[in-house]
Write a structure and sequence with these properties.
alpha/beta, 8-stranded mixed beta sheet, DNA Methylase, Chain A, domain 2, two-stranded antiparallel sheet
Length: 377
């Protein structure tokens, strides 16, 4: 961890969508906190230079958090995170008393107690619903005295160069003397002129995926270079110092191999149905949608964890093949680099990708914050 870079802590870190964006924008990741052991394992692979803490954030104190990061209170520049969104999601039960909703409040309590120079918290749009007004007010009261809080900002990942229409709301606050200026309009400069399509995003990945590729070893497959463009740099280059798994980087840079090309066994009748689907059309039984080559990927879902029945999420159908997409294709559509590793199983890989913030979007957000931050001398 470079001492001269502004230091951030990632709460609810998941596989590291916020972490990667912040590091690429110029920040140093002092600590990542996560309770899911599969997510921690994957995050540790990709961010070997950062510290990791497996903890229930509802029980986490500021003293333990800062001690784990080996930081004093005045050394922490930013606190970021995406608390669980299931209680707020419009496709979930939208339960105002879901215990996981309290983690949104806990994030702001930790902001008050740790006193970072700024904070960034992400969630689904459903959190803005009137039924959650008291939860938002309770959270904001923790930071009202010491922070300037921007109005909630809705960001669509495709506006910033990720090939997905995924939209989330961000709550951003800062000490008035920490940033020179910051408003919603400042983020407009990072938007792209034209979106990256599904077809452009999937270029170079293997099209023919065999259903028997079910182990991690079998999932490593050759990939061809993307055409030179900003998206290609974010996917196939731009590897920050201290980031990336040695094995994955070696196999990628030396042999053009990527992981995550898992196969899925479809019954012949399922394949026949998928073959007949037009781009954008939904399968009547699986509810999977066939992707459009010239369109955007809809929001990728994570499915449920073991505590909620371990249900797999509905996965999009490949735009030209009669199969659902692979985790590596999902990673491309979410904006993760080809050298980034996920869990060694297909189910956990999809969960990690579906739960993540697009690193392309998070990099754009943190670049604006970094450029406006009054850096320490």
């Amino acid at each position: 961890m470079l001492k001269d870079k502004p230091k951030v802590i990632d709460l609810f870190a998941g596989v590291g969508g916020l972490s990667l964006g912040a590091i690429r924008a110029g920040f140093s990741l002092a600590l990542a906190v996560e309770i899911d052991r599969h997510a921690v394992a994957a995050h540790s692979l990709n961010f070997p230079s950062s510290k990791h803490l497996v903890a229930d954030i509802s029980l986490l104190t500021s003293s333990r958090l800062l001690k784990s990061a080996k930081l004093s209170k005045d050394e922490l520049d930013g606190l970021m995170g995406g608390p669980p969104c299931q209680g707020f999601s419009v496709i979930g039960r939208r339960n105002a008393v879901d215990l996981r909703n309290n983690l949104f409040v806990q994030f702001f309590k930790l902001v008050r107690d740790c006193q970072p120079r700024f904070f960034v918290v992400e969630n689904v749009l459903g959190i803005l619903n009137d039924r959650y007004e008291e939860i938002r007010k309770k959270a904001f009261r923790y930071v009202a005295d010491n922070y300037a809080l921007l109005e909630p900002i809705k960001f669509k990942a495709s506006d910033f160069g990720a090939p997905t229409s995924r939209e989330r709301v961000f709550f951003i606050g800062f000490h008035v003397n920490a940033l020179r200026t910051l408003s919603a309009i400042d983020f407009e400069v990072e938007k792209v002129q034209s979106p990256v399509t599904v077809g452009a995003a999937l270029q170079g990945l293997p099209i023919k995926i065999y259903s028997g590729w079910l182990t991690e070893d079998q999932s490593w497959r050759p990939v061809a270079p993307l055409p030179s463009a900003k998206y290609a740099r974010q996917i196939q280059a731009n590897i920050p110092d201290g980031v990336g798994n040695y094995e994955a980087l070696s196999r990628y840079l030396e042999q053009n191999l990527v992981s995550g090309c898992f196969g899925t066994r479809h019954a012949p009748e399922v394949q026949n149905r998928y073959k007949q689907l037009q781009p954008g059309e939904k399968d009547r039984i699986s509810k999977s949608v066939r992707l459009k080559l010239d369109g955007l990927c809809p929001t990728l879902r994570a499915g449920t964890g073991p505590d909620r029945g371990s249900y797999q999420a509905v996965r999009p159908i490949h735009p030209t093949e009669p199969r659902v997409i692979t985790p590596r294709e999902a990673a491309r559509l979410q904006g993760f680099p080809d050298w980034f590793r996920f869990a060694p199983s297909k189910w956990h890989s999809f969960r990690q990708i579906g739960n993540s913030v697009s690193p392309i979007l998070s990099e754009a957000i943190f670049k604006v914050i970094f450029s406006n931050l009054n850096h320490r001398s």
